[in-house]
Amino acid sequence: MTETIQIKYFTDKIEKLDYIAGKSDWIDLRASEEVALSAGDYALIPLGVAMKLPAGYEAHLVPRSSTFKTFGLLQTNSMGVVDGSYCGDNDMWRMPVYATRDTVVHVNDRIAQFRIMKNQPQIVFAETDRLWDRDRGGFGSTGTV
């Protein structure tokens, strides 16, 4: 099923987004302004787009696999979630980053990627005293004896 996403660009200096079927479900995002950071700096890197996602969807925003190697940047919230209500004319997407070294991100540099996912279904929590399944050994225990 094909979904349509309305997109607003804040600049004509970045390449337009493109979904390449068969290559990856993730779509690259680019810096829309030059951002110079010193080691230890925090910044919200503007990505130059705002979108109206299809009803019932959210976007997951993460760094590209080369972002740390190339720029020394860590995304401070590990994964960004853009919910469907963040769709106003001025709701430009941004990537929160922490610089581990001096670096410069130039206009049109690919630094992030996103995909859309269906919203979690409505759930109800049913409290219980036991779950009746076998323990796995605690958090972080997979693969240990």
Q: Could you characterize what this model shows?
A:
The chain is mainly beta and 145 residues long. It has a single domain (6-118), classed as Distorted Sandwich (Deoxyuridine 5'-Triphosphate Nucleotidohydrolase, Chain A). 3% of the residues lie in helices and 35% in strands. It has 1 helix and 11 strands. It has a 4-stranded antiparallel beta sheet, with no helix packed on it. The longest helix is centred in the middle third of the chain and has 5 residues, at 67-71. The chain is globular, with a radius of gyration of 19 Å.
Topology:
Layout: E1 6-9, E2 27-30, E3 35-37, E4 42-46, E5 49-52, E6 57-63, H1 67-71, E7 73-75, E8 80-82, E9 94-99, E10 103-105, E11 110-118
Brief write-up:
The protein has 145 residues and is mainly beta.
Can you tell me the CATH architecture?
Distorted Sandwich
On the 0 to 100 scale, the average pLDDT is 93
The CATH homologous superfamily name equals Deoxyuridine triphosphatase (dUTPase)
In terms of structural class, how would the helical and strand content be classed?
mainly beta
Order of helices and strands: EEEEEEHEEEEE
Q: In percent, how much strand structure appears in the residues? A: 35-45%
Counting H and I runs of at least 4 residues, what is the number of helices? 1
So what's the CATH class? Answer: Mainly Beta
Rg: 19 Å
- Characterize the largest beta sheet: strand count, sense, and whether it forms a barrel: 4 strands, antiparallel
Kindly report the CATH topology. Deoxyuridine 5'-Triphosphate Nucleotidohydrolase, Chain A
Kindly report the spatial arrangement of strands forming the biggest sheet: 2-11-6-8
Distance between the termini: 44 Å
Q: What percent of the residues sit in helical stretches (DSSP H or I)?
A: under 10%
Number of strands: 11
Shape type: globular
Low-pLDDT ranges: none
Estimate nothing, just give the exact number of structural domains. Answer: 1
